[in-house]
Design a protein that fits this description.
alpha/beta
């Protein structure tokens, strides 16, 4: 079973499930969020799912095409892992540059404070880096800034709230 597996750093760590009222930290580990109103729509979508969403201090920063300096982007992630009120960390978007924050993360802090981490695209580097260094299970799923259709919302709730192990299949007849 997954719970009995190990990584190079030790046992696999599973974050606890989300529940209504939980706080999600929104970060920009890769590209800048060029349209702050879209970030607010992302926050409102998570609120509609029963969550509280908070932007990292630097989530809306710009440093060229990046979502802030490497230190600030990593700092937001570390800050949310240190905050006991925050139960998940979602990326606002992918892009490019996420790997630049990996050496700046506090992996011991992350290991001691497991939380759900979710994103895709360039965020895959963050997901794999955290898993490799801590054993924390991470989630390849929509960024907070994505278009959250019924399919994404349903599957996110089934996995992150209900703890369901999903098998992705095409519907019969399609």
């Amino acid at each position: 079973s997954l719970a009995n597996s190990t990584t190079a750093g030790g046992a696999v760590i599973k974050p606890r499930r989300l529940k209504k009222g939980d706080v999600v930290g929104l970060v920009s580990p890769s590209g800048a969020t060029f349209f702050p109103d879209r970030a607010e729509v992302s926050r409102e979508g998570l609120v509609a799912m029963g969550l509280e969403a908070r932007f990292g201090e630097h989530a809306l920063d710009r440093y060229g095409y990046l979502g802030g300096s490497d230190e600030d982007r990593a700092g937001d992630i570390n800050t949310f892992f240190a905050d006991p009120d925050v139960k998940a960390v979602f990326s606002l978007r992918g892009g490019w540059g996420c790997n630049r924050v990996l050496p700046l993360l506090d992996y011991e802090l992350i290991r001691k404070n497991p939380k759900i981490v979710m994103g895709l695209s360039d965020i895959t580097g963050l997901l794999l880096g955290i898993y490799a260094r801590t054993g924390l299970v991470t989630y390849h799923g929509p960024t907070a800034g994505a278009s959250w259709g019924a399919f994404s919302v349903e599957h996110m709730k089934r996995v992150l709230f209900d703890g369901e192990a999903l098998t992705m299949e095409n519907p019969e007849g399609d």
